Structures are given as C-alpha cells and as structure tokens.
Amino acid sequence: MAATGSRQTGRIYKIASAYKFWIELDGMFVAGFTEASGLEAETEIEEYREGGLNGFVHRLPKGTRYPNIVLKRGMTQSAILWSWYESTMNGAIQRKHGAIVLQSADGSEFGRWNFTDAYPVKWSGPQLNASTSDVAFETIEIAHNGLKGVFTR
Predict the structure, then answer these.
(1) Over 50: is that where the pLDDT of 56 sits?
(2) Which class is 7-151 in CATH?
(3) How do beta strands 42-48 and 35-37 pair?
(4) What per-residue confidence (pLDDT) applies to 13?
(5) What is the dihedral of CA 32, 127, 115, 102, to 10 degrees?
(6) Within its chain, how far is the Cα of 46 from the centroid?
C-alpha cells in the first residue's frame, strides 16, 4: 500500500483518519469512545510596549493552557466512568495518566497524546426521547495537567 500524505524535504508523511482511536487510562484500554475532543494547547501571550519603539509590540509567552478533554461513548452497563466521576463528587479525587491513541488505516498505532494527572469534572448521561431511535450516549469531561504528543515515524 502506498503512503499518502504531504511531501516535505524529500519525505512522505502518512495521514491518519480521525475515526480510528482508543483511550487508555493508567496504561490500560478503557473503552471505545465515539468522540474525543479537547486535544488543544494554547500559549498565552503578554504584550509589552517598549518606549521609543512605536513600530511593533513585543509579544512574550506567559504560559500554556490546556482545555478539558471530553470523551463521548454509547452507554454500556459498565459503571467505570460513573464510578470515577462519583469519587470526585465525594472528594476522593483519583488522578490518572492517560492517552488518546490514533490508529493508522492498518490498525497499528499512528501516534498518541499523553495527558497527566487527569480526573473527571463533569459527567453527562444520555438525552432520553421516546420519539427517536437515537443511541444513548454518556460523556465525561476530564481536567488534566498537560499534553505530550508522541508520533511514530
């Protein structure tokens, strides 16, 4: 199978599809999720005007912020996610390290985003409506202390 992707300085880079991924918590496969969002990092800046230099403003980095990761999956009879969130509600925060792992088309690991010291801050149950045949989903939102991308070559 030929690799697809962009060519830069004589190399061809594979392109991954966004629909093949899994979630790990503390090194163990947790569940198949249908959606994962919040893979973001934003470096805040501080603007500094230097006296006598009116042509530009210095833009200095202050720090990096990471929004919460939001994971969505079809409801199952497993209470693992609810139990994890319930411990947070009861004041017994269980921090976990985790990863969102992206797969190549052949099922091998394409790359991953590792996150640290994560704990759930919100759980949402399904939207129930007897007039539709939609799948029941649960969503968990987790706070964390940073992302590190690791990509295979």
Answers:
(1) yes
(2) mainly beta
(3) unpaired
(4) 64
(5) 40
(6) 26
